[in-house]
From TrEMBL:
One of its GO terms (molecular function) is double-stranded DNA binding. Coiled coil: none annotated. Keywords: DNA damage, DNA recombination, DNA repair, DNA-binding. The keyword Amino-acid biosynthesis does not apply. SUPFAM superfamilies: SPOC domain-like. Residues 274-288 have a biased composition (Low complexity). This is Non-homologous end joining protein Ku. Belongs to the prokaryotic Ku family. It comes from Devosia geojensis. The gene is ku.
Length: 294
C-alpha cells in the first residue's frame, strides 16, 4: 500500500454492490519549490495573525464560520453544526450514471485521485467494476462529500486500479460565447488547411508525459543552487537575446511559413507566421487588429 495517508475512506457502490475503498491524491504536493515571505532585516519568516478591526489579534477558539446573508450581517455556524449535516455522500460514492469516456468536456475536470480497494476481500468486486468500465468504454458518475464540499466526480479505469476525477458543476463554468463571439465562423481555406493538417500529422505521436519537462522549475532550482553557492550575494539575471518579432514593415506569407515548417524549417531566430486571410495574400504585422470584447 502507498506510504501516503488516504484522504477519504468509504464505500464505492454500484446498485446493491458496495466496495470498501480508499482515496489518495494523484498529485505530489512537494514536486515544485515553494517560497515563504521573509523579513529581510532579520531573516525570519513572516507570520500572519487573524485580526478583527478595532479589536486586534484574536484566539483561534474565538473564530467561527459565518455566511453573509446581507451586507455586513452573518449567520454563524459551529463545526459541530456543519458536521451534523447529513449527506450520504460523506461515506458512500454511488455510481448513478454512466457516460461515454469522451463525452465530458475537459473544461469540467478539476483534480485527480487514485481509488484503491481497502483489502483483498474487496478486490474481486473492485476488478469487476474496473473491467466493466474498460470493456464498455464508459465513465461512472456520482457525488462525493469531501473537505466540506460535495463534488461531482467521474470514475474511470487506469492501469490495475480506478481513477477518480472531481468535476466542476455547470454553474462553476464560464460561458465561452463572450470570449469567442467576435471570432469569425468562416472556414479556413482548403490549401492552407491541407498544409496545416499535414504538419499536425507529421508531429503526431503517442502521448508520453516524460517527454515534457518543466523548464521554469528546473531554472528555478538552478537559481536556488547558484544563490546557495554565492552565499547570499545578489545574482544578476542572465541576459537573453530578444525574441524575434516582425516589425511593422515585415511582410509574412502564411502558406510559405506552413510549408517551411512542414519541411522541417522554422529554425531559431526566424520570424513567426501570423494568420493571413488568404494563401495568396500577405498580411502586414499589426494590421487588421480585432476589437477586443468588452
Amino acid at each position: 500500500m502507498p506510504a501516503s495517508r488516504p484522504i477519504w475512506k468509504g464505500q464505492l457502490r454500484l446498485s446493491l454492490v458496495s466496495i470498501p475503498v480508499e482515496l489518495y491524491s494523484a498529485h505530489k504536493s512537494n514536486a515544485k519549490p515553494s517560497f515563504r515571505q521573509i523579513h529581510e532585516p532579520t531573516g525570519k519568516p513572516i507570520r500572519y495573525e487573524k485580526v478583527v478591526a478595532g479589536v486586534g489579534p484574536v484566539d483561534r477558539d474565538e473564530i467561527m464560520r459565518g455566511f453573509e446573508y446581507e451586507k455586513g450581517d452573518y449567520v454563524l455556524l459551529t463545526d459541530e453544526e456543519l458536521d451534523a449535516v447529513k449527506l450520504e455522500t460523506k461515506k458512500t460514492l454511488e455510481l448513478t450514471q454512466f457516460v461515454g469516456a469522451c463525452e465530458i468536456d475537459p473544461i469540467y475536470y478539476d483534480k485527480s485521485y487514485f481509488v484503491v480497494p481497502t483489502d483483498e476481500l474487496a478486490e474481486d468486486a473492485f476488478r469487476v467494476i474496473r473491467d466493466a468500465l474498460r470493456q464498455t468504454e464508459k465513465v461512472g458518475l456520482g457525488q462525493l462529500a469531501l473537505r466540506g464540499k460535495e463534488y461531482l466526480v467521474a470514475i474511470k479505469p487506469t492501469g490495475s486500479g480506478l481513477m477518480l476525477e472531481t468535476l466542476h458543476y455547470e454553474d462553476e463554468i464560464r460561458k465561452a460565447d463572450p470570449y469567442f463571439s467576435e471570432i469569425s465562423s468562416k472556414k479556413a481555406e482548403k490549401d492552407l488547411l491541407d498544409v496545416a493538417t499535414a504538419l499536425i500529422e507529421k508531429k503526431t505521436a503517442k502521448f508520453d508525459a516524460k517527454v515534457f519537462k518543466d523548464h521554469y522549475q528546473a531554472a528555478l532550482r538552478e537559481l536556488i543552487g547558484r544563490k546557495l553557492k554565492s552565499k547570499g550575494r545578489k545574482i544578476t539575471a542572465k541576459e537573453e537575446e530578444p525574441a524575434g518579432r516582425p516589425s511593422g514593415e515585415n511582410v509574412i506569407d502564411l502558406m510559405s511559413a506552413l510549408k517551411e515548417s512542414l519541411e522541417g524549417g522554422g529554425a531559431k531566430g526566424k520570424t513567426r507566421a501570423k494568420p493571413a486571410s488568404s494563401s495568396k495574400s500577405r498580411t502586414k504585422s499589426g494590421s487588421g487588429t480585432r476589437k477586443k470584447a468588452s
